[in-house]
Write a structure and sequence with these properties.
The protein is α/β, with parallel strands linked by helices and about 400 residues long. It contains twelve helices and 14 strands. It has two domains: about 150 residues, HUPs (Rossmann fold), CATH 3.40.50.620; about 140 residues, Argininosuccinate synthetase, chain A, domain 2. A hairpin with a 5-residue loop joins strand 11 and strand 12.
Length: about 400
């Protein structure tokens, strides 16, 4: 890619230090016009200052979009139908946001006639892969500029010096202070990396957490909550219909009050290194527990077991940035087919960091038959004598092998 070939770039822009420097750097080093794109995916920050900062830097086309509902409906909800957990722990809060941002970057590039897109992900992380795989899948010939892989501003001190030399305003709590953590927030989660967390032995400081109370400080009385599912998705809380984004925001608030959703994980990044991160995902933690409870009542045993076998593969695809791929879409189609019967209500209790299922029902799709499962006399619904032949047939190979050993 030659710099003279780039006339206009769409930049994923937050208005923070990194992307503010990138904006000016693109103008200087590529001599190009920059279009900024800022997505509201529930990070809980005021985004209008980003518009003013972009205009002040000479940007004419500024996109600031509320994508919370699309994020929850088209990305988070499909992922939760799969019960996706990366390496058995991570609820994929950062991973699932990147395909949506990549999608809008290339759409805006088409709308504005831009030659390229740009992002602020570093050369060490997963996000560069996620952004670029998503972009290439949707716009195969798109040009991608990743400044962290090109420039020599590889420390916060150099970034600050560059910003000062160009008159780029940088907002900090204390002049010259280093932000304690690298953070990412959206409607599903907030993550923390870096600083003292880089030693996996260090316990996170109590004042790091922003969304959740510690379990020790959570209320002494549990909260009760009823989730209504339709087609595998939560559509109402305590009988009140809600949109997907409203569901997540409400569960985040209630779960956070009760100390739910904290995780401290060492994960394997796609680029090959191990990374320690801390996460708050209160709404997602509740949603996963409730969804599995609803499936336990309505899914056929073998369909449920096969779905669990496929889940790690699905989660790995999301984590590694393969959302817009035939294999993810194939898995999604199979998963969504199972969800037609995942309808009903799940009742939960939330108490000091715990999510407890205390009831589940489905008027239309429950496979639970009390007349068969009962420990009382079942009026001929189940002949216990049938188990003798079943056991003997399943034991045949074990008995043959046992005789040979003996």
């Amino acid at each position: 890619m030659t710099r003279t070939a780039i006339k206009k770039v769409v930049l994923a822009y937050s208005g923070g230090l990194d992307t503010s420097v990138i904006l000016t750097w693109l103008q200087e080093h590529y001599g190009c016009e920059v279009v900024t794109f800022t997505a509201d995916i529930g990070q809980g920050e005021e985004l209008e200052p980003a518009r003013a900062k972009a205009h002040a830097a000479g940007v004419r086309e500024v996109y600031i979009e509320d994508l919370r509902e699309e994020f929850a409906r088209e990305f988070v909800y499909p992922m939760f139908r799969a019960n996706a957990l990366y390496e058995g722990e991570y609820l994929l809060g950062t991973s699932i946001a990147r395909p949506l941002i990549a999608k809008r970057l290339v759409e805006i590039a088409d709308e504005t006639g831009a030659d390229a897109i740009a992002h602020g992900a570093t050369g060490k992380g997963n996000d560069q892969v996620r952004f670029e795989l998503g972009a290439y899948a949707l716009k195969p010939d798109v040009k991608v500029i990743a400044p962290w892989r090109e420039w020599d501003l590889l420390s916060r001190e150099r970034l600050l010096a560059y910003a000062e030399s160009r008159g780029i305003p940088v907002e900090m709590k204390r002049a010259g202070a280093k932000s304690p953590y690298s953070m990412d927030a959206n409607l599903l989660h907030i993550s923390y990396e870096g600083n003292d967390l880089e030693d996996p032995w260090n316990e996170p400081s109590a004042d790091m957490w922003r969304w959740t109370r510690s379990p020790e400080q959570a209320p002494d009385r549990p909260a009760s909550l009823e989730l209504t599912f339709a087609g595998g998705d939560v559509v109402a809380l305590d009988g009140a219909p809600m949109t997907p984004a409203e569901v997540l925001a409400t569960l985040n608030r209630i779960g956070g009050e009760h100390g739910i959703g904290r995780d401290d994980i060492v994960e394997n990044r796609q680029v090959g290194m191990k990374s320690r991160g801390c996460y708050e995902t209160p709404g997602g933690t509740i949603l996963l527990k409730a969804h599995r409870a609803m499936e336990s009542l309505t899914l056929d045993r073998e369909a449920a077991h096969l779905k669990d076998e496929l889940m790690p593969r699905y989660a790995k695809l999301v984590y590694n940035g393969y959302w817009f791929t035939p294999e993810r879409e194939m898995l999604q189609a199979a998963i969504d087919r199972t969800q037609r019967v995942v309808n009903g209500q799940v009742r939960l209790k939330l108490y000091k960091g715990n999510v407890m299922v205390v009831g589940r029902k489905s008027e239309t799709d429950s496979l639970f038959d009390a007349s068969i499962a009962t420990f009382d006399e079942d009026a001929g619904a189940y002949d216990q004598g049938d188990a003798t032949g079943f056991i003997r047939l399943n034991a045949l190979r074990l008995r043959v092998a046992g005789r040979r050993r003996g």
